[in-house]
Amino acid sequence: MGNFIDVIIPIPLQKLFTYSITEAEFDFLKVGMRVAVPFGKSKIYTGIVYAIHNTAPTAYEAKDIHQILDDSPIVNNIQLELWQWMAKYYMCTLGEVMRAALPTAFILESETIITKNKLRLIDESTLRDDEFLIYEALHHQSSLKIHDISNILDKKNVLPIIKRLIDKEAISVEEEVYEKYKPKLVRYVKLNSKYASESSLQNLLEDLNRANKQKEVVLTLFSISAKTKKPVKVSDLSNESGASSSIIKTLIDKGILEEYFIQTDRVQYSGDENEDSKNLNEYQVKALSEINACFNEHQVTLLHGVTSSGKTEIYVKLIEDVLDSGKQVLYLLPEIALTTQLVTRLQNYFGEQVAIFHSKYSSFERVEVWNNVLENSAKAQIVLGARSSIFLPFNNLGLIIVDEEHEQSFKQFDPAPRYHARDTAVVLANLHKAKTLLGSATPSLESYFNAKQNKYGFVELMQRFNDVLMPDVELIDIKDKLKRKRMQGHFSDRLIEEMTETLREGHQIILFQNRRGFSPIVECNTCGHSPQCPNCDVSLTYHQYRNQLRCHYCGYNMAMLQDCMACGSQDLDNKGFGTEQIEEEVKILFPDYNVGRMDLDTTRGKYGYEKIITALEQQEIDILVGTQMLTKGLDFRNVKLVGIMNADNMLNFPDFRAHERSFQLMVQVSGRAGRTEERGKVLIQTYNPHHNILQQVSTNNYIDMFKEQMNDRYNYKYPPVFKQIKITLKHKDYNRVETASIWYAKSLKQVFETNVLGPESPPIARIRNQFHKNILVKIPKEQSLSKTKEAIIKINNSFQSIKDFRSVKVILNVDNF
Ligand code: ADP
Ligand code: ZN
Ligand code: ZN
User: Fold this and answer.
1) CA 210 from chain center: how many Å?
2) One Pfam family of this protein, by short name (predicted)?
3) 450-467 pLDDT tens trace
């Protein structure tokens, strides 16, 4: 009988791997710790200990682990349970979940290479014996691997020693493994201890009488420490005394001041005292008490509250209660809604207790939040984050809020796990015996359906805060306007009229166009040819700003053409329009006003998005043109008019959720108009003003939209009535993917009969040179979901064992959002 561990490795393997450990390791290791393990011929991976036991594997001989990377677990049992649920539900491997869950800084990919730090001469007498051995070895060899160091010291856990050598700046690490994360150090100063006595201090100040600036610095240091009673940062000292850093350095060099460093978190709140939360109005009070009542019976409650009804203030009250009971809160938002606006609002109430987690954060920052959550630190009682924050190591969750729960960006498309953060959050909350509140002005059909079925609690809030009226929505028939020559470019006379009026009153305008770039199709008027992406089956979009044609699927780009590639004609025309073109037209129509644009092209970089929002808040921008980025929970006081340039391309999008999404998008973007006092105005331009969705948007009639869409979903067996799993096959050779998908669909049909659709080529049949085929499995309510998945996995395994199909990539997308 030996000692073994099962390890999750961050690669798509169906099974866990078992490794052999020593008696001492058996006593030391705990589930959730990281270990470095050998894999294959020469690879080393970071794995997570999943189980510790005494059963040797039967199929292979267990290898020894390489080393232990942690002193205590970095992943807890609830997380492992969640990972397991995700792997099973979303039909992927635990390794794939692990890779998505852990900050990359936690994952060692290959052997770390250690070299001597040539920039620094080390006094060898300061090194301990084991440190010296390594340092010495580096005189003879330019680099060492961790594995070599283990051999030199005859010891497995050498990381603490390496860490000490790094701290002493004796060595550096090429592919930093465990030390990818470097805490940020802040420079502090204090008075040298030799001036601790009254008399020596007196002498010092007298000496400094000849160096006024320096004396000033020392006196400022006293006054700051007297005031704050905390260590004094060099930056504060320099700010308050007005002294340059060279003066401070002189004082340090003279031995009057001493510098030292303290580790600090990168992401820090530096605000003042916390504000009290707002008194709720009567509707909010009622909604809050209903939510609490629902929580007595339901684990999940849906809050359907119109835009600007004050949902956030209700969340704040719920959060206060949960914090009082000593538990943690997770506040989930779509990435794009994680703006300074909301962050500041919550920090005003909860100060340092708020931690923020999203993809624009560096790996360092993510590790910090991870550690703070793991330690249940006071700094991470409320985590405000995008979808991946469901992976944080909570140990004591009391509440999860999923705001804008209808947002499709909660679903991860690529790579696996293809999870939906809202649905996973419900499972996570259950594991913690916590509650989940879903909030939206335009709930997903799924959540509203669950509420109607009494699976979720349900609360409505139909009054806007301050009783501001819902915006007045007007539909504009562009076909008619064109016929009567009442269009200037893409602007109807009505839109121009309203814009003129709004600007004259000193209010701001948002124009929504769901496409970026200048125009999506460039067409030759002579032969009809339009330039296509060489890698994908789509037309290239013209971006005027860079004078380029670009593919929005693979990023391919080329210079704009002077003449047609097919016939050489110079008569090229633009079809369709994007945000760039609208921006340009607005500038010509309203030359005296400032125009801004918000889309993927203008918001790259960490603060790109923030800058535009601030400019709008500060009223530096009068008219903002943008894509759906505009719709997400922004609160602008002075925006009175919203123009939707063209509703039709959203409505005609080939997807069974297109109508639901168009409704959500238009209602949300309309909600940006007139959020305070004055009623806002929304103009929607369309070729089809009688479309039911547009009628429902203009009357803000969610219920009608819900009923009508649900009808379709029943009739065509779509979610939420039926569950679905979409299977996508990809290959660069069309014939191969076709044969493979026919085989796959046929096998599925033997089991699921008529509930299998396809194979079909999607509207864009080729992306990045890969041909796609889709197969859809529809699953009736009464059919076991887990049995269905088992059957699919069986078919998938047989598929993979066919030689010809092995190179075909298969993607399983559960729920198909
Ligand atoms: P929602 O999240 O439903 O769109 P918000 O919570 O953003 O609505 O509220 C809309 C506006 O009304 C915000 O500016 C908010 O500060 C204000 N507000 C909401 N509730 C209150 C309240 N009880 N007291 C004062 N202001 C409030
Ligand atoms: Zn041509
Ligand atoms: Zn492309």
Assistant:
1) 57
2) DEAD
3) 999 999 999 999 998 888
